[in-house]
Inverse folding.
């Protein structure tokens, strides 16, 4: 079985490398500030002992006041995992750094979130719609979406 | 006397075998000197009893209903019920429709099986438009009828009758192959009631 790392030890390491990056933590989940996503991703992937070299999935949730993005990270080397989350408070123009350059598997999943939630990933090489057709109005997975 | 009842040599020497062969040939030659009769009376036979009187509608509709070829188009999970209807256990070929055509131009029936999304709608409409008249549509399963479970989704067409006209609706999620066969029989009944030469109302 994949070992779920405790958030506390990840927070300690993250805070040491990127001071002020974490917001809260609990269980196997670490919530970080949105401006630290790319740096934290690179740190978690490239630090010896952590080596989160595989992005299980990337998804988003609409909590009506903010969006939460969930990165499920696995290290195939050490067989352990952690969940990284970040929150976006700007509903009008939500933006986040793309982690494509860290994990290439984020490519389609970021496009999906862009398509269905309207979150822009800066630095993504090919950010265009993946499910809906050109000209579709609105973002259907947002809670305030009305057809 | 039959050919096989000619005496067979007991010793199988070359000469004995040749002699037997020769005797056989002589026998056949002797027996078949007269031409076998091939009377041409059969030519009149047809005109004696092979006529049937029927209305043109009944004949045309019978022919159409007995060879409804479906187009090979599967949208979603209901397609598997259609596939198993076509295979040996349920055997759609009992109705003369085992030939699923890969081209809509050779097909008479479009079985819309499953959820139709708005993204797929133009393609389905094109398939329907490419089919030659007369053409029929079966809406199979609750998704095809009304959008079903996904009726309120932003991506799903709430009923294929928004896109193309439907002849027979088969409810179920998914309908069993028996239900599809029943729907096909309903379609046959519908085809058999068609009026092919009815006076067209001028517009």
């Amino acid at each position: 079985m994949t070992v779920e790392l405790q958030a506390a030890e990840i927070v300690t390491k993250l805070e040491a490398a990127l001071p002020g990056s974490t917001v809260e933590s609990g269980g196997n989940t670490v919530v970080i500030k949105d401006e630290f996503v790319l740096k934290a991703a690179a740190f978690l992937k490239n630090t010896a002992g952590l080596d989160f070299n595989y992005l299980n999935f990337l998804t988003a949730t609409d909590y009506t006041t903010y969006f939460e993005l969930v990165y499920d990270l696995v290290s195939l080397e050490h067989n352990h995992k952690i969940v990284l989350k970040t929150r976006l408070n700007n509903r009008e123009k939500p933006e986040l750094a793309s982690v494509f350059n860290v994990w290439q598997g984020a490519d389609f999943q970021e496009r999906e979130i862009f398509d269905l939630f309207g979150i822009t990933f800066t630095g993504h090489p090919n950010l265009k719609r993946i499910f809906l057709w050109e000209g579709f109005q609105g973002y259907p997975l947002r809670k305030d979406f009305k057809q | 006397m039959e050919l096989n009842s000619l005496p067979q040599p007991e010793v199988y020497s070359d000469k004995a075998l040749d002699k037997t062969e020769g005797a056989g040939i002589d026998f056949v030659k002797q027996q078949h000197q007269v031409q076998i009769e091939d009377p041409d009376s059969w030519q009149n036979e047809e005109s004696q009893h092979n006529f049937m009187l029927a209305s043109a509608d009944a004949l045309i509709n019978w022919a159409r209903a007995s060879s409804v070829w479906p187009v090979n188009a599967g949208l979603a999970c209901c397609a598997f019920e259609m596939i198993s209807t076509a295979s040996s256990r349920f055997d759609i070929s009992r109705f003369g429709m085992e030939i699923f055509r890969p081209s809509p131009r050779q097909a008479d029936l479009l079985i819309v099986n499953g959820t139709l999304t708005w993204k797929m709608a133009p393609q389905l409409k094109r398939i329907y438009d490419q089919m030659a008249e007369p053409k029929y549509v079966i809406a199979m399963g609750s998704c095809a009828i009304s959008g079903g479970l996904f009726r309120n989704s932003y991506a799903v067409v709430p009923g294929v009758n928004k896109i193309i006209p439907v002849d027979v609706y088969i409810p179920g999620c998914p309908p069993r192959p028996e239900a599809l066969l029943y729907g096909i029989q309903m379609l046959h009944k519908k085809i058999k009631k068609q009026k092919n030469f009815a006076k067209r109302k001028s517009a």
Remarks:
- The domain at 58-192 of chain B is CATH 3.40.50.12280 (Rossmann fold).
- The radius of gyration of chain B is 30 Å.
- The longest strand of chain B covers residues 109-113.
- Chain B has a mean pLDDT of 88.
